[in-house]
Write a sequence for this structure.
């Protein structure tokens, strides 16, 4: 018997998603307006005259001022979007103290990484004005690989407690599933997501010696072993199709293209915006503005490709598990528990979804079930 979605949960899911999208647009608008004023209002050039340091330190200080300023401006929106709204819809029970601590940790990590990138990029701009974009793209690739490798051993551990899975039978079942997918994992762990959230999640995180299966305790508490297996089978499907290296390569090409086009924009803006050189600190908000618009436009293509990749991972999950019914029940439970819209409008799917929506994933499982004779 096919499971049914909870109509009340889906009503809330649609309402919640709509509010979150409007808040996202509002955040984009605020950031865009600040950057536009800095670039075209002459504020950036005036500020750069005060920052009388050599590069890359002038741009580094400018970045800190800009990041802290935007953080303060967006604080009310971040509080409403990240704390009040999830609590209102029952997706979070995190205390304000813990939420603020998590925000401080996440902001510190973002600030340090952003500062590192700005320092290196502007050092390259100053010393290698013709080829800086190439070296910056390579830097971004290396940083991406490092963060992917550190995700399960460091980054997740900063926010959640990870422990080896105590259920020996389930651990054996999932390890054998990984072996069938020809994917080497370094253990199965549980994450105490219930300490902060009511949502459920599972992932295969890390690279090489750090790759491990991570299951939220909320998933373990409410889902059957067959449902957990099929959720993990989707993650393993990415490794079956070698999606991780493919996505890293695509992101590297996008990064190179973005920096190359940014180089053209900076050089074309020297006279109109009174920039002394492409390495002028006054061009920092222009660089951010261009890269933000570039990534937003390109996200239509990257999201489309990601939805295709995720669909293929669903197909692999159905083949690995051989259990389309468990796939459907797991997707139904997750859609209700995580307040995910079952059938968003086409434009919402195109703009925001990097996974196929629930209705398409269930249709895929039903077709597989019929073809396989289940």
């Amino acid at each position: 018997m096919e499971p049914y979605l909870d109509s009340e949960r889906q009503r809330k899911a649609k309402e919640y998603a709509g509010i979150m999208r409007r808040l996202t647009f509002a955040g984009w608008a605020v950031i865009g307006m600040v950057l536009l004023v800095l670039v075209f209002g002459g504020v950036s050039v005036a500020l750069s005259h005060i920052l009388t340091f050599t590069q890359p330190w002038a741009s580094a200080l400018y970045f800190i001022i800009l990041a802290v300023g935007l953080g303060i401006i967006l604080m009310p929106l971040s509080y409403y979007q990240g704390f009040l709204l999830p609590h209102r819809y029952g997706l979070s029970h995190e205390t304000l103290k813990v939420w603020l601590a998590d925000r401080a940790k996440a902001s510190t990590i973002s600030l340090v990484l952003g500062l590192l990138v700005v320092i290196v990029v502007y050092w390259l701009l100053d010393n290698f004005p013709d080829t800086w974009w190439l070296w910056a793209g390579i830097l971004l690739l290396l940083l991406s690989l490092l963060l992917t490798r550190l995700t399960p051993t460091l980054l997740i551990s900063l926010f959640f407690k990870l422990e080896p899975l105590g259920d020996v039978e389930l651990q054996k079942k999932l390890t054998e599933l990984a072996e069938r997918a020809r994917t080497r994992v370094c253990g199965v762990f549980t994450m105490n997501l219930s300490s902060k959230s009511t949502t459920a999640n599972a992932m295969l995180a890390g690279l090489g010696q750090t790759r491990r299966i991570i299951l939220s305790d909320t998933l373990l508490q409410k889902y059957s072993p067959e449902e957990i297996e099929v959720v993990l089978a989707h993650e393993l499907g990415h490794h079956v199709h070698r999606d991780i290296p493919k996505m890293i390569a695509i992101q590297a090409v996008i990064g190179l293209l973005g920096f190359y086009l940014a180089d053209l924009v900076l050089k074309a803006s020297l006279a109109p915006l009174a920039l002394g050189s492409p390495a002028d600190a006054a061009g920092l908000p222009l660089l951010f503005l261009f890269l933000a618009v570039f990534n937003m436009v390109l996200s239509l293509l990257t999201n489309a490709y990601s939805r295709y990749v995720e669909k293929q991972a669903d197909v692999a999950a159905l083949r690995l598990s051989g259990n389309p019914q468990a796939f459907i029940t797991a997707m139904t439970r997750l859609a209700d528990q995580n307040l995910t819209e079952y059938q968003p409008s086409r434009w919402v799917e195109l703009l925001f979804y990097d996974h196929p929506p629930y209705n398409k994933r269930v249709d895929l499982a039903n077709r597989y079930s019929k073809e396989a004779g289940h």
In short: The first strand starts at residue 162 and ends at 164. The mean pLDDT is 92.
